[in-house]
Amino acid sequence: YFWLFYLGRLQGLCLTCSFLALGTHFGKVFLLDIQGNVTQKFEISSVKINQISLDESGEHVGICSEDGKVQVFGLYTREGFHENFDCPIKVVALHPQFTRSNYKQFVTGGNKLLLYERNWLNRWKTSVLHEGEGSITAIQWRANLIAWANNVGVKIYDIGTKQRITNVLRDNVSLRPDMYPCSLCWKDNSSLIVGWGSSIKICVVKERNPTEMRDLPSRYVEIVSAFETEFFISGLAPLADQLVTLYFVKENSDHMDEEFRARPRLDIIQPLPESCEEISSDALTVRNFQDNECRDYRLEHSEGESLFYIISPKDIVVAKERDQDDHIDWLLEKKKYEEALMAAEISFKNIKRHDVQKIGMAYINHLVEKGDYDSAARKCQKVLGKNMELWENEVYRFKTIGQLKVESCSPRWLNCE
């Protein structure tokens, strides 16, 4: 859990496997290591940073701000692109292979979507990919596919074929797009997850049959899952075949008709074609959550690792997938000893912090404390095995409490006298 109050109001987050890049409301960008220590600081603007983008190598960064500044530069060279626009630039995205590519492509979004690339004369060339449907509010670039959201819906552009593939219309049109922004996330090179308002859609980009092409794009999009959620979506991330969802929660008070803001929720859900199944749910404690809106939260994830970063204006929460040891901890905390013992026996090769016999002993102690001496005695044979010292201790304990008569499960080779 990172506490980052001293950085000022947080606006954007981007990450690689080795560091985080954070933007603030006052135009600063900080680089932090995974432990939360500041390693570099950049003064970009005097107003809020809208978005930060890193390429896959983590060597180049793109930054845009509310006053129309766009900077794309190498973290180790500072050479790159610097431009001021006459309108706020809301989003920026670098080509995933920006460092290795000769063309150095990136896109920006304000009132239009612009593609920048270097030509053979080492000059920057600009192309308008889309305009006329309001502000661009989100961009995600994966391989050759660029997905973006505006006031109307979500589009996908294939930069390889220079074709726009699809238009996924926005649901919840009654919600203001600036207050309930779209969340975009690529699960892989062809699967895009779209969250907007309280709706989620999973879109898969597929190759079109050559006989069906005519004047159509070579690819098309199939929506394989579409469903409504209980709360408003602030962020999405893939977790194997499941989804991690960050929810902004409004609830009705028992004593008042008006709504109030509750703590944000981090859920794991299993998408189905027309609905979803909740796997787990956790309410997050972040400072001043009562004052936050849906747009104030973001969710980022580190690919290849089950690490998830929840950003709020004053805090960053780092969440990681529970392993079997964590699951056993939870079962023991809830005094579900039998389930904990079973889980440890099944996963004894993978658990690192727990020991099957120690869990079994805790279960026996729990049964004795409850007065369930018969069950405790039956568990001794399985848990104690051929450990002479443990058997002697248990026989002595049962004798002391006057329950040695039920110790019928003691091994024949043990002298109980």
Descriptive overview:
- The structure is a single chain.
- This protein is mainly beta.
- Helix 1 (324-333) packs antiparallel against helix 2, helix 2 (337-346) packs antiparallel against helix 3 (356-370) and helix 3 (356-370) packs antiparallel against helix 4 (373-384).
- The longest helix has 15 residues, at 356-370.
- A hairpin with a 4-residue loop joins strand 18 (183-186) and strand 19.
- The protein contains five helices and 30 strands.
- Mean pLDDT is 86; it is low at 1-8.
- The chain is 14% helix and 42% strand.
- A four-stranded antiparallel beta sheet has the order 1-30-29-28, with no helix packed on it.
- This is VPS41 subunit of HOPS complex.
- Residues 16-321 form the Vps41 beta-propeller domain.
- One of its GO terms (biological process) is macroautophagy.
